[in-house]
Amino acid sequence: MIKDIIKNLKPSSTLLINEVSNKMEKEGKKVYKFGFGQSPFKVPEDVVAELKNNAHQNSYLPMQGLKELREAIAKYISSKKKLEYKPENVIVGPGSKELMFLLHILFDGEIILPAPSWVSYAPQAIIGRNKIKWLECSRENNWFPTAEELEKLLKENKDQKYLLFLNSPNNPSGQICGNLEELAALSKKYNLYFLSDEIYSELSFEDNYKSIATYAPDKTIISTGLSKWCGAGGWRLGYFIIPENLSNITNQLKVLASETFSSVSAPIQYAAITAHKNNHDDYIQKSKNILKSVGNYVYENLKSNDVLINKPQGGFYLMPEFVGKKFNSSSEMCKDILQKTGVALLPGSDFGFKENKLLARLSFTDFDGQVFFEKTQNEKIDDSTIKKFAPKVIEGVDKLKNWSK
């Protein structure tokens, strides 16, 4: 009764590790939840208040999203990217994940995924019956493809349409792509388009964040939403910003929306207007300050001859590689780490790497973000403060370091 294309798919590893961790905790075991990544902070109070104020909204909203929300998003993104977007360029979905899934279904071409890539890109491409081209990247280039590596792949079939998924800051590596202009230049020579997954862009640790849309505006679909910067992952509201020349994609996404999710929850759309209209710079800056401080602590205390790791640049992930260990796969390694230390990590193979590459994703958000947020200011956060408000991060890193020796 089940199609062959679906039989080999497994539950999303990010969601699965969260359930496994919760189950172990209920059994009385101490678990350091470094596997599941979500914002540790509460949704801003004004946005929560607006959700409450609009709980009575019970009508189906337009398939593309509430016009007032799309206007607010267009203005917000135009200001951030220094580009000009209109409400017609925006389509709202129940999380950017769902919109990506529909994009996979409608796209007629091949999908290019850098390794590492977020765990759901490849399964969604498989469900959409799209051929995947993997580009294994190196630590030296922040785990992103070089222009030479990408062009070598594009030359294999110059007539093919390609869609490159580019996630910066990156999940799982926490790195930012530094060669956007070179990659964008290839879209002028080849039939290359970009899905720029910028869900972590507001959490870049430096203030000079750049989008590939700056260099290839007519070839780039921007994907983002409320889950990371606004702490609203469970609210499920994301959106695409699609350039005018790709309006056929916008129109077809509306058709698919009408046949799948119909429209996003009305109260959440009204609340999202406030999220984009009101100034949340202080909230974002404080969130970034905490994440950067905790991330740098993990980096400084975990890196060694046994653990190769890049300094985090945004979001809440690091991607350590454990050298000199004798495991057949990163999955086997992560199981051993969990059993011996209680530290839950995700194996690099879940993100497109070969099984024998002993990489893992580490999310450093196992702390009470609300308490940390309320008890600190926008100031330099020292190790003693991290120990006070993120003790499980300190303990988990210590256990992981001892295991790695």
Count of discrete structural domains: 2
Average per-residue pLDDT, rounded, comes to 93
- CATH 2nd-level architecture of the largest domain: 3-Layer(aba) Sandwich
What's the end-to-end separation, in Å?
Answer: 49 Å
Task: Kindly estimate the percentage of residues that lie in beta strands according to DSSP.
Answer: 5-15%
**Inertia-based shape:** globular
CATH class of the largest domain: Alpha Beta
Number of helices: 15
Report the helical percentage.
Answer: 40-55%
Could you give a short account of the major beta sheet? 7 strands, mixed
Main β-sheet, spatial strand arrangement: 2-8-7-6-5-3-4
Identify low-pLDDT runs: none
The run of helices and strands is HHEHHEHEHEHEHEEEHHHEEEHEEEHHH
CATH topology of the largest domain: Aspartate Aminotransferase, domain 2
Strand pairing plus helix content: what structural class? alpha/beta
Number of strands: 14
Rg from Cα:
21 Å
Name the CATH superfamily classification of the largest domain: Type I PLP-dependent aspartate aminotransferase-like (Major domain)
Please characterize this protein's 3D structure.
With 405 residues, this protein is an alpha/beta fold. It has 2 domains: 4-43 and 281-404, Aspartate Aminotransferase, domain 1; 47-277, Aspartate Aminotransferase, domain 2 (3-Layer(aba) Sandwich). Helices cover 41% and strands 13% of the residues. The protein has 15 helices and 14 strands. The chain has helices at residues 4-7, 13-26, 45-53, 67-81, 96-106, 121-127, 147-154, 180-189, 247-259, 266-277, 281-302, 330-341, 369-375, 383-389, 391-404, and strands spanning 32-33, 90-93, 110-115, 132-136, 162-167, 192-197, 220-225, 238-241, 307-308, 317-318, 321-322, 343-344, 346-347, 360-363. β5 (162-167), α8 and β6 (192-197) form a beta-alpha-beta unit. The termini are far apart. The model has no long low-confidence stretch (mean pLDDT 93).
